[in-house]
């Protein structure tokens, strides 16, 4: 990043050897599937919101200096419009031996190189003036491919250096042609983007794209099609299992422990149907009372007031009962209440200070009603009217 010469030099981003290797997790392994896990995740999100100020209503967030915001906007515009991106060797690969153990497969897409640059009218790389109403972008992509190999030659069991070496060797290029079962054969493309930045010029489109492709070959074998179906069915079943796993299904088979499975079925149906149908007046009254209780407790927490053991118990219980969205909404209300109370205190101090300069130093700020009466008497005494 040429910070010392942003007016004349582009920002350059270079990425080499971007590799991602994925594989499905065994559904029997420990996942986020218990109420305790969900509670811990909810509390982590709430703690992060508190640190980042996400629990604060928009109207209470500090305003951004307009001049400072304009400066950063212009700086980012200057950088992004002249940024040059050079990416070499992209390979994202997914290996699956779980969806159908009899027919393992691996699929992935690769790009040999990808370049994005700003250009002049001749489509040659150039530095763009931030005041130009039209900017030109050129994208060159070489050897893009998508494959699905119906074999069990996996990389996930290898050491990291060997994985990196193999991932790179499996990227097709002009010099290298790996033996993949391609769905999209390696192809190259060039995209020219003509972007109109003027907000008042309606005589031309906002973006004009000129896309040039080499010969595109797309094909799919029966084995590849079957692997796609197996993978889709496996993930569908996986998500169903994950949804019910939080209800702690028995480890035995239904024929081995039918009573436990009947209890599991009853608890699951009750939780998904009966517990969700609770929007009656009694529930709404309880929810209202606990919302008000939580707001007061969170206000105490924000001003570092120590909880009593009972208050701590209630605070934790409400956390476990309500959703993340409910709790975040109530925290915003509590923060707004605190801001209003602080504002009232500041106004009372100002009025009390001005009043005490006439009648002596006040040790305590009077109530708002008493202050209003005192002001009325003072106005009458000096012959002043606010109207």
Automatic annotation (TrEMBL):
Signal peptide interval: none
Subcellular location field: Membrane
A Pfam family it matches: VPS13_N
Membrane topology per record: Peripheral membrane protein
Biological process terms in GO annotation: protein retention in Golgi apparatus; protein targeting to vacuole
InterPro entries named in the record: VPS13, VPS13_N
CC annotations in GO: membrane
Cited function: Mediates the transfer of lipids between membranes at organelle contact sites.
Family that this chain belongs to: Belongs to the VPS13 family.
Protein name: Chorein N-terminal domain-containing protein
Top-level taxonomy: Eukaryota, Amoebozoa, Tubulinea, Elardia, Arcellinida
């Amino acid at each position: 990043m040429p910070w010392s010469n942003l007016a004349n030099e582009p920002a350059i981003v270079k990425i080499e050897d971007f590799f991602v290797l994925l594989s499905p997790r065994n559904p029997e392994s420990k996942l986020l599937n218990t109420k305790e896990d969900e509670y811990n995740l909810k509390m982590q999100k709430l703690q992060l919101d508190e640190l980042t100020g996400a629990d604060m209503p928009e109207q209470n967030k500090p305003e951004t200096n307009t001049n400072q915001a304009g400066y950063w906007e212009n700086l980012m515009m200057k950088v992004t419009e002249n940024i040059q991106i050079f990416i070499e060797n992209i390979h994202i690969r997914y290996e699956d031996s779980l969806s159908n153990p009899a027919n393992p497969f691996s699929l992935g897409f690769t790009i040999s190189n990808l370049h994005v640059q700003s250009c002049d009218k001749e489509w040659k790389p150039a530095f763009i003036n931030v005041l130009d109403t039209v900017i030109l972008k050129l994208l060159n992509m070489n050897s893009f491919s998508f494959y699905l190999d119906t074999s069990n030659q996996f990389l996930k069991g290898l050491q990291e250096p060997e994985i990196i070496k193999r991932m790179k060797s499996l990227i097709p290029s002009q010099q290298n042609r790996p033996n993949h079962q391609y769905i999209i054969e390696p192809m190259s493309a060039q995209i020219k983007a003509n972007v109109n930045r003027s907000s008042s010029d309606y005589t031309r489109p906002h973006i004009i794209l000129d896309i040039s492709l080499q010969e595109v070959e797309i094909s799919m074998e029966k084995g590849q099609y079957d692997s796609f179906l197996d993978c889709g069915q496996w993930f569908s079943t996986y998500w169903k299992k994950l949804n019910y796993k939080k209800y702690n299904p028995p480890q035995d088979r239904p024929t081995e422990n039918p009573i436990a499975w009947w209890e599991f079925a009853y608890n699951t149906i009750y939780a998904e149907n009966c517990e969700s149908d609770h929007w009656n007046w009694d529930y709404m009254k309880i929810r209202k009372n606990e919302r008000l209780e939580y707001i007061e407790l969170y206000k105490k927490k924000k001003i570092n007031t120590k909880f009593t053991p009972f208050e701590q118990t209630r605070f934790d219980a409400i956390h476990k009962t309500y959703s993340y969205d409910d709790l975040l909404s109530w925290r915003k209300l509590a923060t707004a209440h605190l801001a209003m109370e602080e504002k009232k205190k500041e106004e009372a101090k100002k009025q009390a200070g001005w009043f005490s300069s006439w009648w002596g130093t006040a040790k305590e700020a009077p109530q708002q009603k008493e202050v209003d009466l005192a002001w009325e008497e003072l106005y009458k005494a000096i012959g002043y009217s606010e109207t």
